[in-house]
Amino acid sequence: MYSIVEVTIKRGEQILLDLLKDNPTRAVMQDNFFRFFYYLPFGGYITPFSLNNITLKVFEKVPAPKGWELIRDYPISIMKTSLLAKLEDIEKYMLDQQRQASGLYLDGWVFDTIANGIYTQEETAIFIRQMYLHGYDFEQVVSLFTAIVKRSSLASYFLDVMKRFYFAEATGNTIAYIINQQKQDTKIIS
Predict the structure, then answer these.
(1) What pTM was computed for the model?
(2) DSSP letters for 3-71
């Protein structure tokens, strides 16, 4: 089953808007905001976030936006890799801002993961993001993952996601541009 990703941006976020325009899908508009709907690639996962004029939400069903004007009556498409990579850069930036140095309480999802294991790429992605968010270092996450996971087919995916979170330099010029642009906009308004 595919998850639905809703990306809402304010008019003027040109770098991200250009990427969204290159990924044709259903889109709606209200005032100065655009909303684009995509299917997340199968087995993928991204954390919902809100950064200034960009909001990302994940749904199981297509939401019915009330009061929004349909501007692209296309079928919902699967998100392209280039767009997903930019959104994951922003996601990582947001997780960096919220990262804590406190362990996870072994209850709920964490307990189920330890008790039942990790079997899919989506579960792997969630596991890495949770460990990263709660301040676990690279070696600790690798140790936990190898103890929990018995499927060698997840190893390369695990390492790819780990590299993005633990060995990525800055999250890229796009995020810096968006944040600096918003700071300038705030100065102009005030």
Answers:
(1) 0.62
(2) PEEEEEEETT-HHHHHHHHTS---EEEETTEEEEEEEPPTT-----EEETTEEEEEESS----TT-EEE
